[in-house]
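Hi R.,

Here are the chain sequences for the assembly we discussed:
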Amino acid sequence: MSEMKKIKNLKEFSTSADRFEGANLLCPGCAHSIIVREVLNATNDDLVLAASTGCLEVCTAVYPYTSWDASWIHIGFENGSTAVAGAEAMYNALKTKGRLKQPERNPKFVAFGGDGASYDIGFQWISGCMERGHNMMYVVLDNEVYANTGGQRSSSTPIGSSTTTAPAGKVSYGERKNKKDMVSIMAAHQIPYSAQVAPNKWKDMVKKIQHGMAVEGPVFINAVSPCTTEWKFDPKDTMHITDLATDSLVFPLYEIIDNHELNITYRPKNVVPVEEYMAAQGRFKHLFKDEYKYLIKEWQERVDANWAYLQRREEARV
Amino acid sequence: MANTGWDEFEIGAMLRTFEGEAGDIAGTLQEDRNYTQNSSFSASVADWRIEKPVFNKDFCIDCQFCWVYCPDLSIISRDKKMIGVDMDHCKGCGICVEVCPTNPKSLLMFPEKDDEEEVIAGWPEKEKKEK
Amino acid sequence: MAFDKVELKDIEVWDGNFAASQAMRQCQIDVVAAYPITPSTPIVEGYGNMKANNLIEGEFVMVESEHAAMSGCIGAAAAGGRVATATSSQGFALMVETLYQASGMRLPIVLNVVNRALAAPLNVNGDHSDMYLGRDSGWIQLDAYCPQDAYDMNFIAFKVAEDHDVRLPCMVHQDGFMTSHTAQGVHTLDDDTAYGFVGEFKPMNDMLDFEHPVTHGVQTEEDWHFEHKARQHNDLMTKVLPKIQAAFDDFEKISGRKYNIVEKYDMEDADVAVVCMGTSVETAREVAGEMREKGIKAGVVGLRVVRPFPFFEIAEALKEVKAIAALDRSSPNGAPGMLFNEIAGCLINTPANPMLSGFVYGLGGRDLTKKHLVEIYTQLQANVDAGKLTTPQQQFIGVRGPKLSFL
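And here is the predicted structure of the full complex:
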């Protein structure tokens, strides 16, 4: 095992030498790169990275430019997880055979994918990787929509959100299904660690990433990634929206260890009404019409119920 | 680069980030790295900006909020101190200004064409909190 | 070495699948990521059994689909090491997306394809539909006619694919069941000789070289894509066949077995020739001999290399032939067959002016009988005697119902 990077406070964190580069093509204010930076800067170990097709991938490796300072691979939309699993298998093989070029290094294998690539098209591939026990981390950049292709619904899109394939209209309030609970589904693969993170809570993020990199076996991380373009808010407000997401408990921050130990890792001092979170985003604008206001109420009830559920699980250690 | 013929690049559209050996990248700051022309570090997105952040070090407390939340690696911090903004990589999103906790803020957005010295000379006063 | 070697007999009785498994073991592959599908399953089972008995040191990853199998192979190959897998039919079809990605990223993966028909209707038996599906994917495609070939072509595949001047993935095709499940005597190489032939893997642009980080799988749009695809085509067209020939020459030195890019049998003075692939080559050879006893100068041309297509070698093999039959074991579904088209293409701008007939045969594992081949040769000779085509250019043989012919 390599030594864990010591990050006591933000000043110490700021001495990190980023291994991700600017002049990528992500939208101004995109949370993806904030998350990627926090993940990569959580360790000083060598990295082998993969990305599934999506915003992050198409904005960071457009020939002749790459924004990656560590080895990185993209194959397709569904298989970022399996790409890094294959690389991990090769690492193990070359280690056994004594053919690693730098055997003293201790690389971490990390794959990134959007919610479309992870909740939908790549679901089976991730499931396979988790089940097989590769020593890898999979990070979802969850912006609840196919943002790269212009805002189509995914199975992470929440109820009432207006997307281009499930738009709000005269007889539609937008998305009709609630989002999939990927953290639990992945935890149910009996993996050692799964967690939900948010870029505003950088310390919680770093702690979880470091925990995930330290354990043996597959790790699943779901990172909320507010999308200025598809959630329809001003680029400068990305962190404000993230604060609303975590403090309204729409995105509660927690971890599940070995599929039985759930810990809530952030308890907002002042819980923000879900309505406030929704009002700050254009994708929910139509819900503030009289005929749809019941949906906001239902949203609040659902968020409350989920928070109560998480607390019960935490208390019961299940 | 755009004139490069089919026989003039590496097979598989593979790109390298660094010239020669990379060494301990996680322990090497950007200015000490030997980037290739293929690293986006060598590129600029300055022309994306409509407004630019201006840094006024007089009010900065080096909290590093702007550093951690900058999506574009454009806040340059060295030895735990905020030094300035990398104007080649800043897209002008304005997150750094929003997360700046000082009063007055140490970073503010101004139209791209504004003169930096002039805007710093006219920096706003500390806002009094209403009680 | 932590793993055990195997003392093989000089001649082992193996089917094509087990021959491929044994070759894979001897090549000391670093990562095999695989998924089972009939009829290639025994390759994966055989390999898994060897792994379970400490005959393999590399990683063996049983994934959840063929798409994941090739995805894992791509990740592993980009990381830098020897990689292979096996599949058939529907599994191959599921893999197709990643086949293009593997070749476009210039990763030297070896894929054993045990040829099988494509549904619908579902069918587990051998035809060349999957092989044909892969023919524009940018892979090298080698064709085995029997278990011996399936064994030998694996060594050739690694040797050529991993060559730094090539760096292209390579398929080794064998006929489902007819080769894969038919046990024959296979002349073996001892473990050291076999590994010595393919040699230790030499990494290139490997992700696990932390001193030289690489980005694999970039996006290129209209300003770059064409150049990269052109580069790949150029390398397939100019570099691969000479490397295959060199590998065949080297292989002959260690094995005594001589392979050719285009296999010619009784072709020195042939008036009529059948061009085909897989197990059909052996049947055609036998019938050609019998036709010669009847006074018909019959020959056989077998493709050993399907891609890159041996354009000049085929033209050379057929330049003196008066009537040719192109045998396609895949439904062209609305066009002449692949072999018909390719042969026509390589002869059209030459002085040769043969009569070319296309035959679609053997779909879904339907036998190609000696009787069928007698019919074909007889027809070709009739064309020669008449000095013109006496039949339509595309015929189905071995199918029930009224005679089916087109064009």
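The first helix of chain A runs from residue 10 to 13. The longest strand of chain A covers residues 108-114.

Let me know if anything looks off.

Best,
T.
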